[in-house]
Amino acid sequence: MKVIEGGVTAAQGFLAAGLSAGIKKGNTKDMAMLYSKVPCEAAGTFTTNIVKAAPVKWDQKIVYESEKAQAVICNSGIANACTGEEGFGYCKETAKAASLALNIPEDSVLVASTGVIGQQIPIEKIKKGIENMAPLLSESIGAGTLAAEAIMTTDTVKKEIAVEVEIDGKNVTVGGMCKGSGMIHPNMCTMLGFITTDVVISKELLQAALSESVKDTYNMVSVDGDTSTNDTVLLLANGLAGNKKIETKEEDYKKFAEALNYVNTWLAKHIAADGEGASALFEVKVIGAKSKEQAVTLSKSIITSNLTKAAIFGHDANWGRILCAMGYSGAVFDPEKVDLYFESKAGKLKIIENGVATGYSEEEATKILSEKEVTAIADVKMGTATATAWGCDLTYDYVKINADYRS
């Protein structure tokens, strides 16, 4: 497997476009279109929030009930959440407009929205955006980048990646883009993710690969503890790589799953690093756990602790906050056996051993914690299971961004 240039247009047969449809203030890109030359198998994972945006309900219907999918229409600026029957009707109108513009079935069009909750989307601008984007569709890397930029809200950078792997003697590509910066919490986040691949695979195994990957990637990210109404990850496979169809969980499936997981992990980490107001990516590894479940619970508890996140912002080795977060997680462990390390490009330092401080240098700890990427490693010495979670520090800017988000 190797990383290659591009994102959603890297795989054969996928085209994209992005432009300003006038949904956001100013001349800012706010609509994206993704299209496959041939119908695709589709898989999806969605928010666990009971309050689900209209596009989530629409996409669940398409993924679960439609035979194929072929296009995705996404807007930023307005979430189309808490908009009732009218909002769901706009999803149908969006799909109908795309169906006419692309000459594909209405029930093969997926839709996604992100932005302010509670407002109706300007459907006429959406329709006009679709009409304008269709002629702009391109397989170029630049077109994929435009789409990645168009789905951003409070994101400060676009997020796209692609990898290539050999399966059955064929080059198979997996490419992806996502957006996510705030209202990010495990069990999906205010994130939209779109993954494309040219692999030939059954719909059942495509969904299995995505569902399994999400557990260790997007579900292990937290910025602020808020689970969104719009979280959606869509995976489209158009089969143009020409490999023998993957129908069992054997070697070819494992190769594809590994490539997919690499893409999702990269995107998840970049969501965390681009958390609203963030100045550092904060990674937490729990090792020596009795079970994967225990490791996941402990790592998530640490990554979501506001006191710990504030300490990371202050470059303060306040390890008591980490041990405290582990203690209220609900996982059972012996705090008097825990070892804790801080690590970054500046070095690695053992902070506590068997639950007590090691007499470490505060100056060295501060140096390690002053890097752009910081890792905490907690060893609970109970087994061999591990888990990794990603978050970011908690800064003054997070409050500023969310205090005037609508105004």
UniProtKB/TrEMBL annotation:
Pathway in which this enzyme or protein is active: Amino-acid biosynthesis; L-arginine biosynthesis; N(2)-acetyl-L-ornithine from L-glutamate: step 1/4; Amino-acid biosynthesis; L-arginine biosynthesis; L-ornithine and N-acetyl-L-glutamate from L-glutamate and N(2)-acetyl-L-ornithine (cyclic): step 1/1
Binding positions (substrate): 153, 179, 190, 276, 402, 407
A Pfam family that the UniProt record links to this protein: ArgJ
Primary residence: cytoplasm
Subcellular location, record wording: Cytoplasm
Reactions accelerated catalytically: N(2)-acetyl-L-ornithine + L-glutamate = N-acetyl-L-glutamate + L-ornithine; L-glutamate + acetyl-CoA = N-acetyl-L-glutamate + CoA + H(+)
Gene Ontology molecular-function annotations: L-glutamate N-acetyltransferase activity, acting on acetyl-L-ornithine as donor
Listed EC numbers: 2.3.1.35, 2.3.1.1
Keywords, ordered alphabetically: Acyltransferase, Amino-acid biosynthesis, Arginine biosynthesis, Autocatalytic cleavage, Cytoplasm, Multifunctional enzyme, Transferase
Site (Involved in the stabilization of negative charge on the oxyanion by the formation of the oxyanion hole): 114-115
Subunit structure: Heterotetramer of two alpha and two beta chains.
Family: Belongs to the ArgJ family.
Main function: Catalyzes two activities which are involved in the cyclic version of arginine biosynthesis: the synthesis of N-acetylglutamate from glutamate and acetyl-CoA as the acetyl donor, and of ornithine by transacetylation between N(2)-acetylornithine and glutamate.
Protein name: Arginine biosynthesis bifunctional protein ArgJ
Underlying gene: argJ
